[in-house]
Predict the 3D structure of the following.
Amino acid sequence: MSAALPASQATSFSSAEPSTGSPGNFLVLGPRPFISYFRPLPNASLSRSAWGAAEVGPRDPSNGLEDATLARWNYWDGQILKGPDGKYRMFASRWDQSLGHMAWGGSLAVSAISDRLYGPYRDRGLIWPDDEGGKGHNVIALQLPDKRYAVVVSETRNGDVFVSRNIDGPWKNLGSIIVDQSAFTSLKTPGDRLDTASKATWKASNLSLIARPDGRFMIIQRSGQILISKNGVLGPYKVMGDSIYRGIAGIPQTEMRAYEDPVIWYSGGWYHVVVNHWSSRRAYHLISRDGIVDWRFQGLAYEPNSKFIRYADGTINTWNKLERPAVVMENGHVIAMSFAVVDTSKESQTGDNGHGSKVIVIPFDGASMDRDLKDL
């Protein structure tokens, strides 16, 4: 195993490295960047006739969750949990594909099931059909310390939390997340600033939520601010400071409003964040020992043209958009990541035109990453 390098001797990971095909140089505090830990997709029968732009390439329609005929649904989000029966559940959102991508504001929360981690996932319908007609977007899921399951939605609902003793429901609306802004103001985006922001009613956007090993609950929101609750999943959550992206060398400090879809988790003694910067079309990996301060840049996470979505035979898939990343954890390590993907620009996905969105699942060697970062 390569020895981790101190920050003062950070190495660069460039396009010369064949494992990523990524353009440009990226400072890396450890021996390898995040993107290098993605693994080839399982062998599958690749289709050249599946819907989507030609640039995507031959692909496996059975990977993840999709409407294979593209007759009804666009799918989005895609958090995966393994059930006690050994089967996998995906918690996602969907909306009428004929309305085009920009109709996402009317999306509904659904669950899907598969015998295999990589799919295919079968849509089982709305998670809470009798609560606002199933309304839900930015769907995430987790198992709580008391063994209940929780599904959380934001953007179209204000941090509503649904819980169940059974991974298949029924789901009860526990309430909405509460945020304490007495110490720091909650910002809308990382492009806003604490010194000019005025306090307003908290709005839930792009939430990622975990139960920490110390018993507290933790949120990172679109602004890149960390929120901590000592009093359960609903909070109140205290805003702990400014956006963690601000002032970190190695990630863009311009167009800060372009940061979105952060995902947070704990593994290998580190808190990890992967966040997408949509204007640069790249996502970045940050790490912190306590998850609150001293966040450090740990390299390129992924980008659409970096050729990391590949099969064992060398076939590459290139989706136009990769958003809503989520991690699948097993034995304390990330074993896969899911992404909501679009085959064209969102504006070009106008409905009934052969373009749409789905959820894909990609293998990831988190155990090796955690070993590499252990003594950083």
